[in-house]
# Entry
Amino acid sequence: MIDATNKKALAVLMRGQVPLREPEQVREAKVEQKLDLSKYKTQKEDVNGADPTKQDTREQQRLEPIRVEKKVGRNDQCPCGSGKKYKNCHGA
# Structure
């Protein structure tokens, strides 16, 4: 079976053809021009003139998620009161 698969694969590869082009049609690859990044600024400036490294307290509050209640684990009792594990009750 492996020998037959190898023969089929070899037959497909041997039928393949490489397209040839005339030397006049072949072009050289262009050299990529590098961007001059020395003119660009590396730090963000604040519009109000404040220090960009200091963060506003409102931004810090937005980053932290608000948790109202404790997260229920998979093997803890379900909070609905059924007596089953959470993964078999509401976690399914």
